[in-house]
Amino acid sequence: MTTLPEDPHDPANPTDPARASGEVGERLADTLESAVLADAAKILDGAVDPEEIASMDQLDAPRRVLFVHAHPDDETIGNGATMARYVAKGAHVTLVTCTLGEEGEVLVPELAHLAADQEDSLGRQRVHELATAMEALGVTDHRFLGGVGRYRDSGMMGLASNERPDSFWQADLDQAAGQLVAVIREVRPQVLVTYDEKGGYGHPDHIQAHRVAMRAVDLAGDDAYGEDEPWQIAKVYWNLLPRSVIQRWIEALREQGSNFFEVESADELPFAAPDELVTTVVDAVTHVEAKLAAMRAHATQIAVDGPFFALSNNIGLQAWGLEYYRCVKGEAIPDPEDPDGRETDLFAGVV
Ligand SMILES: [Zn+2]
User: Fold this and answer.
1) Which residues 6+ apart lie within 8 Å of 167 measured at CB?
2) Of 85, 119, 135, 136, whose CA–CA distance to 321 is shortest?
């Protein structure tokens, strides 16, 4: 259930090299449009229940980690390699995504008509993209907070879409946290990963996902809350992108003639975090291929022919295979083998 199709030229195979070439546009027009939307419709109509597909013996896995993200694609960009690594190690990996990403830009011209200001059907497309990405990472337990389409993408900060009553930004915090508590008490993860209080870079849905996740961590462990057995999450992490790492990317891209970040210095980027906040680095370089396949699956959102994908081998592997965290609940246990004295396993110290 977690293996990729064997035929490298199978259109359903996100590792198909052709998908990274110019053929991708034509193929998307043919396949994503019909088959993909049909699949997404099946999920949306309840014919396929992603929660049911998830392993029923999840509690048998001794190590369980829950990722809480705002939109389909955030999980892959921020944690894709980590997710693939822990799946490969036999951990139970759960993803909760809070919105369908309906307000996202569409980078595939053939699918531009799905955008919020046109047909407003991008959410269905992104449900399928997420399912394909999770297949690439081997994650079988992925859910939407409160069910598919319960909360709508709020769009970038300051836009009118922030005010829509169905937007995640307008969600009642305790109600949304309660929906996450149900997942936490069912899955019983020792580790939860989400954004920092700024939502990484300030998107309202990322900020809200942070608030909901942190509130749910508290409520899930409170035996006075709800009827299910309480569950204390041992360790909570926030995703971080350290400034020094971003600066290396800027310079490497510049050497290749690309001004991808459009700045000279990482200091100008809102998501560059002080290096000293990093407690933990997960080295999942051996899972970069799975992460890249998952990124390609998010075809409407991530331009796979962009300069970032062309980063020369070593920097590219490091860029995609090392993921950084700040431990904010529980204790980060430094790995004596890490040159910077950081923790290297999200489960370190978990008994
Ligand atoms: Zn996002």
Assistant:
1) 151, 152, 153, 154, 155, 161, 204
2) 85
For residue 74, the CA-to-ligand 1 centroid distance in Å is 5
Distance of alpha carbon 130 from alpha carbon 74, whole angstroms: 10
pTM of the full structure: 0.83
Lowest mean pLDDT among 120-129, 150-159, 301-310: 301-310
Distance 192 CA to ligand 1 centre (A): 18
Residue pair 63/188 in contact (Cβ under 8 Å)? The answer is no
Distance CA 78, CA 306 (A): 18
Chain segment 183-196, per-residue pLDDT in tens: 999 999 999 999 99
Beta bridge partners of 152: 167
Cα 194 to averaged position of ligand 1 atoms, centre (Å): 12
**Residues ≥6 apart with Cβ < 8 Å to 193:** 65, 66, 67, 68, 79, 82, 236, 237, 238, 239, 325, 346
Please state, rounded to an integer, the average pLDDT across all residues of the chain.
Answer: 85
Two tokens, residue 290: 């799975």
Residue 41, both tokens: 């419709």
CA atoms within 13 Å, Cβ hemisphere of 169? 19
Rounded CA gap, 156 and 196, in Å?
Answer: 17
Q: What is the pLDDT of residues 295-309, one digit of tens each?
A: 999 999 988 776 667
In whole angstroms, give the CA distance from residue 75 to residue 165. Answer: 25
Residue 21's pLDDT is what? 37
In the DSSP assignment, the letter for residue 229 is: P
Phi and psi torsions of 325, nearest 5°: -145, 160
What's the gap in Å between 351 CA and the centre of ligand 1? 32
